[in-house]
Amino acid sequence: MPFGEQMSFVAAPWVEQNYDSQDGWRAEATLSLKQALFRGDEWAVAVQAGALWNSHPALNQCGEAGAELRFLVGSSLPAEGAFVNLEAATRALEGGCESERFDFTAGYRPSHDWLLMGQVFLEAAREGDEAVKAQFTLVRFGDSGRGIQFGLRNRIDGGARETALVIGLWGAPGD
Hints:
This protein has no helices and 10 strands. By secondary structure, it is mainly beta. It has a 10-stranded antiparallel β-sheet with strand order 1-2-3-4-5-6-7-8-9-10, with no helix packed on it. Strand 9 and strand 10 form a beta hairpin.
């Protein structure tokens, strides 16, 4: 939700069925403010800071609540409708649990109604395992600007397979 030309409110919740947790599910949510630092014809740079909630922290001494600071850089590519985006985040949960996350996205929007994306995520806890996951999704937008996302995500670093079906809802600008 924009608060003007340079600042917006970002709500990013997700939930998944997960048999690795005792409850059989896992969820996370961030509520943040994002400030654009630079916007050009082909580049954008922003910083985002906010609250983080994680339903099942990796280490037992970690709390569920914390904070996240994220740096974002995106660029359109010479091919019409193509883009790349790189995000780096540092996270801290109650109890001193800290981690970093790097997200790389390449996308192509062949028309107003469709968006194809490939993403790679690196999650690195300061105490614990690293995980590298890849995700491929397709987003279908309606006339309202809202979209529904479908895809698959899997761990690609040789660790335990974590194949997941991705379903997402995208809001229209101003929602």
